[in-house]
Design a protein that fits this description.
With about 170 residues, this protein is of the alpha+beta class. Helix content is about 30%, strand content about 40%. The chain has helices at about 35-45, 45-50, 135-165; strands at about 20-30, 55-60, 70-75, 75-90, 90-100, 105-115, 120-130. It has a seven-stranded antiparallel sheet, covered by helices on one side. Helix 1 packs antiparallel against helix 3 (about 135-165). The protein is globular.
Length: about 170
């Protein structure tokens, strides 16, 4: 049972009113397919999240609607459920929503896209509100932490894919 009503709202980028919104986008590089494929796989298998140092416990090895996971960072353990996935030519990723016990309520999406010029972009899109006292007390610091995590995800994805390219034949 999700802790918010707008389940799936991050799929198309039109975020609901009344929440804090996060939109982060960073260039991973230019490529003809290998970078995009690596980034898509790293996102969909939670490898990117693990690359940030987060502890991920998931019902499955790959994101799919209904897969439950717990993201652990430091002493926090936050339960989520995948609400949508995308695996299309030029676009891949997933969005997960918060479950009871999460510090926030809302949804967060992680996607990779290849544009017409061949540039590969990583994006985080989210909407959230504090759900528990720790997050409410955190105020602006909690918002800063969410923005920082988006950037850390981007750096981790670049690192995962750079490593992958150095070991491919």
């Amino acid at each position: 049972m999700f802790t918010y009503a707008e389940v799936g709202a991050t799929l198309h980028g039109s975020l609901p009113a009344g929440y804090r919104h996060l939109r982060y986008r960073t260039l991973l590089g230019r490529d003809a397919g290998a970078l995009f494929d690596c980034a898509a796989e790293a996102i969909l298998t939670f490898r990117m999240h693990r690359g940030t140092g987060a502890k991920i416990r998931a019902d499955a090895v790959r994101a799919a609607p209904g897969v439950r996971l717990t993201v652990g960072a430091g002493p926090l353990r936050v339960p989520c459920e995948v609400v949508w996935t995308a695996e299309e030519p030029g676009r891949a990723g997933f969005g997960y929503g918060t479950l009871p016990g999460h510090q926030a309520r809302g949804e967060e999406a992680f996607t990779v896209e290849r544009d017409a010029a061949g540039d590969v972009w990583f994006s985080v899109t989210a909407f959230s509100l504090p759900a528990r006292p720790l997050m409410r007390l955190g105020g602006p610091v909690a918002v800063l932490a969410q923005h920082l995590y988006a950037r850390v995800c981007g750096r981790a994805l670049k690192k995962v894919c750079a490593r992958s390219r150095t070991v491919d034949p």
